[in-house]
Design brief:
Elements: H1 8-17, E1 21-23, E2 35-37, H2 39-58, E3 63-65, H3 74-80, H4 82-85, E4 87-92, E5 99-101, H5 102-108, H6 119-129, E6 147-150, E7 153-155, E8 168-170, H7 175-179, H8 182-189, E9 195-204, E10 219-229, H9 234-251, E11 259-263, E12 273-281, E13 285-294, H10 298-307, E14 313-315, E15 320-322, E16 325-332, H11 333-344, E17 345-350, E18 353-358, E19 369-373, H12 378-391, E20 397-399, H13 405-415, E21 419-423, H14 425-430, E22 432-437, E23 443-447, H15 451-458
Parallel strand pairs: 3-9, 19-20, 19-21
Antiparallel strand pairs: 1-2, 4-5, 4-6, 7-8, 9-10, 10-16, 11-12, 12-13, 13-16, 14-15, 17-18, 21-22, 22-23
Helix pairs in contact: 2-11, 3-10
The chain binds adenosine-5'-triphosphate.
Length: 461
């Protein structure tokens, strides 16, 4: 019977043991809020990014891609409002000096709060409840007042004197690179509204409590798409985008019962509507996976004002000139990666033995086909290598001749490999191999000559 009562510890342990995710700089004791992706994690993340790119750019004639730089003119962050308002509410435990987010502490005692409240608002709320809140580190109940803490990470790029000048930030989100290139893209690509610009890239935030594994890290990757519309059609496009993105997540194999919508009750002043798609993470519960927001004309207006460039759009059909409105979708690669692993992780009993298997969508699996000679006999290795060479240019394949065949199957199950090919002594004479399917463990004999066609059908995109 499959058992899906996995905890976050199950996932963390598998991810470490099987080369998906490692703590950053582990041999130096790690580095808070930063993780490295190992060989299989890199493959899985790469497949998730490719799937997103295909859904958001490849299959959309109205969306184009961009790769803007991590460093930007500091004025970008002033105009966007990030230097003044991109902050989380910080409190410190007076006893053990642990720093916590005031909104998260309030939520832990079921008092609604969020990072969009002003310092005064959340300060008052925290004061009135702080006697009921205990420090997660030392258990005492003695906190400082609330201070807003800016999340932008600054650098000394281009500063050789050490004097304090305008801070150069590592971008806090990829979206700003899209807004400042709106004119470049629309001019060079002759795009007509509505159209979107998509990008995947790193973002950096000084998260106060980067504790929930790869859910909240200080360095992470975002996949964002900003869709530019006329003022009249933005809310229609918003509804379409919501539906498109929810279906896109389902098509990656995420289970519907682990996804839900959450409407933002407390909107920032310029937002017209905002929803999150939440995922029910093991041990952590419902957390934001993706944000879908209708942002009005805020973004292009502030950059037009800040830069002096004309970011308006002339609509030939209506003869009107206006600043385009934006609807956006934004999802973190790490949060999607963790959701995908959590839904795929299954422990089941097979013939009295426990097996852990990642039931990943086969197109996402880090390794699609593992080629295993039955034993280390030279003629079997030679034959299996021939099969590997035949398939490796069309699919991500692995060749493995270490340990017993049973152990090798288990290893491939744990990394979610959908097919294992075994080259045995019969293969030498009948020119056929055994193909084992991951989930059913059913085996069938396939002629070596027919393998390419066999897998072409199995991996139809
Ligand atoms: P949260 O409220 O959970 O801090 P947020 O509202 O600040 O998230 P956005 O600014 O809307 O998040 O960022 C868009 C997406 O980027 C999020 O839905 C999430 O998937 C991802 N993301 C944001 N912050 C982080 C982080 N610190 N680590 C990993 N992913 C993140």
């Amino acid at each position: 019977m499959p058992d899906n009562n996995r905890t976050i510890d199950d996932i963390v342990s598998l991810a470490k043991r099987r080369g998906f995710v490692f703590p950053s700089s582990e041999i130096y004791g790690g580095f808070a809020g930063v993780y490295d992706y190992g060989p299989y994690g890199t493959e899985l993340a790469h497949n998730l990014k490719s799937a997103w790119w295909r859904q958001m750019v490849g299959e959309r004639s109205d969306i184009v891609g961009l790769n803007s730089a991590i460093f930007m003119n500091p004025k970008v962050w002033q105009s966007s409002g990030h230097t003044a308002g991109f902050s989380d509410p910080l409190v410190e435990c007076k006893r053990c000096h642990a720093r916590e987010r005031a909104d998260h502490l309030l939520e832990s005692i079921s008092v609604f709060a969020d990072e969009k409240m002003s310092e005064e608002e959340i300060g008052r709320l925290f004061e009135s409840h702080k006697k009921d809140i205990v420090c997660g580190t030392c258990g005492e109940s003695d906190f400082t007042g609330v201070k807003l803490f800016n999340l932008l990470v600054s650098s000394n790029l281009g500063n050789f004197t050490g004097e304090k000048k305008d801070d150069v930030y590592l971008r806090g989100e990829t979206a700003q690179g899209i807004y400042v290139n709106f004119k470049n893209v629309s001019d060079t690509m002759h795009m007509k509204l509505p159209f979107g610009i998509a990008q995947i890239g790193k973002a950096f935030r000084n998260e106060i409590t980067p504790r929930q594994y790869i859910l909240r890290t200080r360095e992470f990757e975002q996949m964002e798409m900003q869709y530019f519309t006329s003022p009249e059609t933005d809310m229609d496009e918003f509804e379409k985008l919501k539906e498109y993105r929810f279906n896109a997540l389902l098509s990656l194999g995420l289970k519907k019962e682990n996804l839900r919508w959450k409407k933002h009750d407390n909107l920032v002043f310029y937002a017209k509507e905002a929803f999150d798609i939440e995922y029910n993470y093991p041990s952590f519960g419902w957390k934001e996976l993706e944000g879908i927001h209708a942002r009005g004309d805020y973004d292009l207006s502030v950059h037009q004002n800040g830069s002096g460039a004309d970011l308006s759009y002339f609509d030939e059909e209506s003869g009107k000139r206006f600043i385009p409105h934006v609807v956006e979708s934004s999802i973190g690669v790490g949060r999607l990666f963790l959701a995908i692993l959590s839904d795929a992780y299954v422990e089941e009993e097979v013939r009295g033995e426990k097996r852990i298997v990642l039931k990943l969508d086969k197109r996402l699996a880090p390794v699609r086909i593992a080629i295993l000679p039955l034993s280390k006999k030279e003629e079997l290795i030679r034959g299996a290598m021939g099969v590997y060479k035949k398939l490796k240019s069309a699919h991500m394949c692995a060749y493995d001749d270490t340990q017993s065949i049973g152990k090798r199957y288990r290893r491939q199950d744990e990394i979610g490999t959908p097919y294992c090919i075994t080259y045995d002594f019969d293969s030498i004479n009948d020119f056929a191999v055994t193909v084992r399917e991951r989930d059913s463990m059913a085996q069938e004999r396939v002629k070596i000559d027919e393998l390419e066609e066999y897998f072409r059908e199995k991996f139809v995109p």
